Structure formats: structure tokens, C-alpha cells
Amino acid sequence: MAGRGGLKNFYLLLGVVVVGGVAALVYKSQTRGSATAETGPMPVVAADSVPPAAYVIGSDTAPVVIDDYSDFQCPFCAHLAILTFPDVRTRLVNTGIVRWRFHDRPLNIHNKTLRAHLAAACAAEQNKFFPMHDQIYFHQGDWVESNHTDDLLRDYAKGIGLNMDAYDACVKSAKPMARIQAESRRADQMGINSTPTLLVNGRLYDSGKRGLGFDDLKAYVDSVAAVVRAEREEERTAAAKK
């Protein structure tokens, strides 16, 4: 995971697993630290009354809640988003088993990640966070290496059908930065200092031991869901006896 080393092994493994453009995308992200942000650092916005929040998909009655703390410039997060999350969304979220909550966790070691988090937040204002999430991760190697990062992010926003006047105003104001920074501080307080970090029903998912592949994650989700369903059934039975 980002922040913990092991990038060389990750890319060797990914080269075996991923084909075509996806492999090239993640490979290119190795050079992320050398790219130059063409318009300078993102503005620092003082925290306000806006509480930390997650971007959520899935039923509020799902037995399993997964909190995903991720960084848009993190190659491991791209691995999760590209190779695992589509199946999670189709087979676990859409079937009512999982409620997925994405949390902003930009890392200081990544020089362009705040631009991507801001772009995604501005898409969220038009209820299109996850389409923008997908575009940012699938094109990670491009915007990370480019000297025109903001233009590329704007292209992705346009491609998913955003109102561009509203998007441009949001990016210019940088108003979502207060929420992004608040969420990042909250993650710090929780001891979440690497990405991606997954919490499953509030418990840390050990991705180093279990893996980030869909089958690995599903097996763990199934075991947690079975326990929750059993507990809910016990509660219903007890209530019926009263």
C-alpha cells in the first residue's frame, strides 16, 4: 500500500495480472512524483463547520459496510478501483450485500492528488462522484504525468456530462477543500496513514494478508454478512417472543 513500500513487487505482480491499457496505466503511475504541477500548489482552505463525509453507494440496510480510505494518485488505489471495485459494485453493492463509502485520504507524498480529489468533489456536487472516480483512476497515469493535469481532469468532467460552468466555478472556489481536509485529518486521528485502507463493518481489513482481489474481499464479506444476518435473525426472534 502507498506509504508502506513494496512498489516494485506490486508492479511485477500487476504486470502479470493486468493486460493492455490497464497495465500501462498503472505502470506509468510509478513516475508520479516527478511530474510538475503546472499551476502551483492547491490552496489551503481553513476548516469550517462542514463535517467530514463519505461518498456512498449501496443500501442503508446492507449487512456489510465498507469504508474505503483512498488517494487518487496512489497506484494501489488504482489497482483496487480498476480491478476489484467494478465487481464489488455489480455483485455486492447492487445486490444489497455491501454499502460502500469512499473517504478522501490524500497523502502528502503525492504532488497532484489534491487536484484530483477536488475535481471529484466538484463532480459530487452534481451527483456524479463515482463516474468521476472511475475516470480519474482509469486515466491515473495520464493526469499524473501531464503538465496539463487540470485540463485533463476538466476533460473527464466534461466526458461524464457535468455542467461545466458549475464545475469550473467549484474548482475555482476550491470550497470542497475544507471537507477534504477535514476528512483527511479525521483519518490521521484514526491512524489511517496509508492507502487504500478498508474498514469492513468498522474493522480493519488486512489487505496485506488477505489481498485486494475481488474473490479475496468477497470471501471476507460473505463471512461478515453471515454473522450479521444471524444476529439480525436472533434479534427478530427475541422481539417476536416479547
Describe the structure.
By secondary structure, this protein is an alpha+beta fold. It has a five-stranded mixed β-sheet with strand order 1-3-2-4-5. It has one domain: Glutaredoxin (3-Layer(aba) Sandwich). Strand 4 and strand 5 form a beta hairpin. Helix content is 55%, strand content 10%. The relative contact order is 0.18. The chain is elongated, with a radius of gyration of 19 Å. About 20% of the residues have low confidence. It contains eleven helices and five strands; from the N terminus they run H-H-E-E-H-E-H-H-H-H-H-H-E-E-H-H.
According to CATH, what is the class? Alpha Beta
Q: Counting H and I runs of at least 4 residues, what is the number of helices?
A: 11
How are strands sequenced across the largest beta sheet? 1-3-2-4-5
| Overall pLDDT level | 83
> Considering the protein shown, what is the CATH homologous superfamily?
Glutaredoxin
Shape: elongated
Second-tier CATH architecture: 3-Layer(aba) Sandwich
* Strands, total number: 5
Number of domains in the coordinates? 1
In CATH, the topology is named Glutaredoxin
Task: Label the structural class.
Answer: alpha+beta
Sheet having the most strands? 5 strands, mixed
End-to-end separation: 49 Å
Radius of gyration over alpha carbons?
Answer: 19 Å
Give the SSE string. Answer: HHEEHEHHHHHHEEHH
How much strand? 5-15%
Low-pLDDT regions: 4-51
Helix content: 40-55%
